[in-house]
Design a protein that fits this description.
The complex is a heterodimer. By secondary structure, chain A is an alpha+beta fold. Chain A is rod-shaped. By secondary structure, chain B is of the alpha/beta class. Chain B is 40% helix and 17% strand. Chain B has five helices and five strands. Chain B starts with a strand and ends with a helix. The chains are: A alpha+beta, B alpha/beta. Chains A and B meet through helix 6 and helix 7 of A and helix 1 of B.
């Protein structure tokens, strides 16, 4: 699977869970809203039913007052109620639309009230007639008074109305309690669901992020390894089983590694050709020159003898150039074995062989002993010491060698009292084929310091020169205490 | 055993001259035959104008037509050559070459010096090398 697909799947999962969370929350909040709405509605219903009840009671008391006092003024609340109540009932009906039980109750209350209104009106009518005919109470009123009022017909109706309203309210309160519990529960549920889903989303996010990061890191670190190995001269390839965007990079790296390996092998082949095929004829020429000297020396004029020795000198120079060039090409490409090197011993060995008797060598500080590539360190010291000897004009030479422990590396310095090097040449002398001397001098190939610099830089060390013309020279170089190297690969 | 004759199988004529000079200088009564490659060597050993059996063969490895190892393989198949000592004289410092030739049976393996400036001037010539090696080979008899 391609990496981008994996990343998209990871993000899709997160988005998917977020959507689910959002949807669940929406649903739960709807529920909460519905319950809240219902509670508000229920309060309105109770308020309304209280109004109805109050209005009915007022009508009853005004009716009673009129019958007692015969004063029409008392009837005002009765008529007001008559006008107001149908509106209140209508409103209440609207509010309890969703509850058939309560509707029935309200209907029966209204019906009872209408019955009472009919009864009350008939009493009012009869009373008025009695009041109109002076001193004589109407038979109709008496009949009503005796049969209805006395027998508490009106009271019974109003009591029933009160009872029904109470029942209605109780029912409303009961439902409201259930709804309130529902509301609390739905709020709790909403909280739980939000928490749970957020947790799941978070987990999915973390897991997919870790997985993808791990995947990419693993691949990249294997490529970094490959690149490091290539830089160390170990040309391997990665066997990549995945098939994604990074595979292209891996295969490019593999191709690079293989091409480098091939060209390094070719270089080695070239080195062999140079060492064998170029040197063989040179050796032949040298031999012939020696034979000529041996066999025909007596026939030579002085001039010819001089020419012969000049020719031999040039052949030798050519040979040492080829050797040095080969050596230069091998630095950093072919690792030498690691062994414990006593630098004191190494330096003494070098000075014994290459420093002439008229030189005084001083090792001014104790030299370390550590595990490193002995041959390379030997090359560096012998090149620098032989330079100190070579570039010298006074009768008595002085060479001073010292070392300093600088933590992860050692710093060595080689100081002489020779002819010195003017600052403008300080960089030039480290370049290949640069020699500050005349070309005919056989011992100077111009590669020595270039090899020194290449070896030191290959070891991640540095070299610098402190010198002025005529005032001697000091070469200071650093050399790491630990050298990591891999198996020789070619 | 006294060495009466040597067969030098070597494509570089200068090496042949060098050996001739050394043998002359050493004042030894040794006949030197030479072939420039393995095929020529077999012609000398088996051909119509064949030479008397040499006591010693000095064999170069890197030669045109039939190289040293091919020659030695062929040479070892013939039992009549068993008494002839074979020394390898080559510029090859290759482990493989040394291993292969030693397996085929040789009396010595000499590496011709390629560098001639490292040593003191006298020691580094081909003549010096030849002289030194011949002393060793003939002296060890």
């Amino acid at each position: 699977m391609r990496l981008s697909a994996k990343i998209i799947i990871g993000f899709s999962l997160i988005i998917f869970f977020s959507l689910i969370s959002f949807w669940v929350n929406l649903r739960l909040s709807n529920e909460v809203n519905r319950n809240t709405e219902f509670l508000t509605n229920s309060e309105a219903i109770i308020r309304n039913s209280a109004k109805i009840h109050k209005s009915i009671i007022e009508m009853q008391s005004s009716h009673r007052g009129y019958l007692l006092t015969d004063n029409e003024v008392f009837l005002q609340p009765f008529y007001a109620g008559l006008k107001e109540l149908p509106l209140l009932f209508e409103e209440e009906n609207k509010l309890i639309q969703g509850s058939p039980k309560q509707l029935i109750k309200i209907d029966s209350i209204q019906l009872l009230h209408q019955q009472w209104v009919i009864y009350a009106n008939s009493l009012i009518e009869a009373k008025r007639k009695t009041l109109d005919s002076v001193h004589k109470s109407s038979e109709e009123y008496i009949d009503l008074f005796e049969n209805k009022l006395q027998k508490e017909v009106g009271k019974k109706i109003t009591d029933e109305i009160s009872l029904k309203i109470k029942e209605f309210d109780r029912q409303e309160y009961f439902v409201r309690q259930i709804r309130r519990d529902n509301l609390t529960e739905s709020i709790t549920n909403a909280r739980k669901a939000t928490f749970g889903l957020s947790l799941v989303t978070l987990l999915v996010g973390i897991v997919s992020t870790i997985y993808i990061t791990h995947l990419i890191t693993k691949r990249i670190s294997s490529m970094v390894n490959l690149a490091e190995n290539i830089s160390k001269g170990n040309f391997e390839v990665i066997h990549d089983k995945e098939n994604d965007e990074l595979t292209d990079l891996v295969s490019s790296l593999n191709i690079m590694s293989e091409k480098l390996k091939k060209s390094f092998l070719e270089l080695d082949q070239f080195a062999y050709v140079v060492s064998h095929d170029l040197k063989a004829p040179l050796r032949g020429m040298y031999n012939i020159a020696i034979w000529m000297e041996e066999d025909c020396e007596k026939e030579f004029s002085d001039q010819m003898g001089k020419y012969m020795s000049q020719m031999k000198g040039r052949i030798q120079r050519m040979e040492s150039l080829i050797t040095a060039l080969l050596e230069y090409s091998k630095v950093g490409r072919i690792n030498k074995p690691l062994e414990i090197v006593d630098v004191q011993e190494l330096v003494m060995e070098i000075t014994d062989t290459i420093v002439p008797k008229n030189f005084k060598v001083k090792i001014s500080s104790p030299m370390p002993a550590f595990k490193t590539e002995k041959i390379r360190l030997h090359q560096v010291f012998s090149n620098l010491i032989s330079n100190a000897v070579k570039y010298h004009d006074s009768e008595f030479g002085k060479i001073s060698i010292s070392s300093k422990d600088k933590g992860i590396y050692y710093e060595f310095s080689i100081k002489d009292n020779g002819i010195g090097i003017a600052p403008e040449y300080h960089e030039k002398i480290f370049k290949i084929f640069q020699t500050l001397r005349e070309k005919h001098e056989t011992e100077s190939t111009g590669i020595g310091l270039a090899i020194v610099k290449k070896i030191i830089e290959d070891k991640k060390g540095t070299i610098k020169l402190i010198s002025e013309k005529g005032k001697g020279a000091t070469f200071i170089f650093t050399w790491p205490k630990e050298i990591y190297q891999i198996e020789e690969s070619i | 055993m006294k060495v009466k004759s040597i067969l030098l199988i070597e494509d570089d004529e200068l090496d042949v001259i060098s050996l001739q000079r050394v043998l002359k200088k050493m004042e030894l009564d040794i006949t030197l035959y030479n072939a420039f490659n393995g095929t020529e060597a077999f012609e000398l050993l088996r051909g119509p104008n064949k030479i008397p059996m040499p006591d010693l063969i000095l064999l170069d490895l890197n030669m045109p037509r039939m190289n040293g190892i091919e020659f030695l393989e062929e040479f070892r198949k013939d039992k009549s050559f068993d008494h002839i000592k074979v020394f390898i004289m080559t510029t090859s410092n290759d482990e493989q070459d040394r291993y292969k030739t030693e397996k085929l049976g040789i009396s010595g393996y000499m590496i011709k010096p390629l560098n001639f400036t490292d040593n003191s001037k006298k020691n580094s010539s081909m003549d010096y090398f030849m002289h030194f090696q011949m002393n060793k080979i003939l002296g060890s008899d």
